[in-house]
Amino acid sequence: MGGTTGTHLDGGQRLQVLDALVTVLSGLYAHLPAKRAAYATDPVQALVLLRRRAADLTDAEFHLAVTGIVLGLRDAHTRYRGPAVLRGHVAVLPFVVEAYGPWADPTFVVTKVDPDAGADGLPDGFEEGVEVVTWNAVPVARAVEVHADRETGGRADARRARALESLTSRPLDFAPPPDELWVDLGYRPRRTGRRGGSTEVREARFDWRVLAPGRAGTAVSARTREALKLAVDPAADAVRRAKRDRYAARRAWLDTSLPDVLAARPLDDRYGYLRLWSFDVADDDAYLDEVTRLLGLLPPCGVVVDLRANPGGLVWAAERLLQLFADPGRTGGPVQPVRFELAATPLTRQMALSPFNRLELEAWSASLQDSVTTGDPYSRPLPLTDPAWCGDRGRAYPGPAVAVVDATTYSSGDLFAAGWVDNRVGPLVTVGQASGGGGANVWTDTQVRDALVGTGVTLPDLPAGIGFTVAVRRAVRSGASDGVPLEDLGVAGIPYDLTRADLLDGNRDLLTFCTGLLDAAGTPPEILPADRGGTS
């Protein structure tokens, strides 16, 4: 593909980009103190220094330098968007690679092959289940490790998970195209793999292609109040949609009006399975209505709620959903949402005082003004979701529930996981150390520019379609974990290592593990078969 950048920026335009990022990161970025401490880096100073040599760089060098500085924050909410020439596109290979086994000794396998890729000349024997050995002549474990160093994620397992997610599907809004024009893959054919005793390794070449997956039909519109209440990783959502378009689900799911974000099916006559693909919905009431309807069609003795690879979305949708599974006798009261706080800086104080931000930021204003004398680095933490909304429907599923997350469960997915644990809704199973660790409400450069009206600070229009997203309000947990930030840490639960059967046979072992937890939780007497008109 090559590393083209598209539109040329002159020296003045490059300084505009750098000055805008310095203003936002130094005055608004919610995680700046923590990132400086965690990674021993100062992105603001790095941007100031880049300003001195910006005019001497090529366009590709400039964009890569800015991308590298912002990427060093390891924050998928805070991203630099290069020129708009590839906006909305994803570079893809005609297969997906995933890993199973323990962290220290993973095995990498092809788990999906594009059904429309046959015309591209897929090699004989290249199919789901082949073991990947090398990537461009580099041992695949090392290649993934190198790629992970260019990914976001505050923990090593999160970066590896993100590297696997983007290894064959790379969102071009937030990163340059792949350096290589093609990939040479070394693999062991499934029919002569290690189980058969053969050590044969074949090699095949695959070209990158570019797709435009488009926005989800349910997605939040950029100019609504909901757009300021998003907690989402837009890069991961682009990858999710690109994969959805190529790899249609082969399982017998129940019919749903929201197939882009939801799926459900019975596992047997006792247990059900609910897949939450995303929370990117403009209408959270319609979302809850559909989840409630699907839960009513599932067996009542227990449900597995799977949020793996959920990139987030509308905060309200994620946090209101918890009440459908919460037993008030166990939670000790209504579900408590996660709270959010602003960095206490001169800029956020000005923003909170601006009449243009009264509806959005006024609740944080008093504590931001008090921070001048108290020295607090953050405002008072307050919820984005009205606590009353977290109990306005009540429990919809009568049996116990277990939730599953992994290191690519991010943003509002992290909020859901935190609420699940902190409100004692049920067991949480984590593939990897914890959920992804995306703890913030994210705004775009356009939203930031609008919020600066009336502050005396302006953000210039960025040239050539360039933009950014930034974590504006950081999330801290409630309940037993009161005050603990979500960023980089994520939410830990019962650890689980994926197996080959999970990747190639519909999560067989994972679901057995989860239904074992449901067995241990027991079936409430009121929904035993004998009480539903059956025989004992």
UniProtKB/TrEMBL annotation:
GO terms for biological process: proteolysis. It comes from the Bacteria. SUPFAM superfamilies: ClpP/crotonase. Gene3D superfamilies: 2-enoyl-CoA Hydratase, Chain A, domain 1. One of its GO terms (molecular function) is serine-type peptidase activity. Residues 271-448 form the Tail specific protease domain. Coiled coil: none annotated. This is Peptidase S41-like protein. It comes from Luteimicrobium subarcticum.
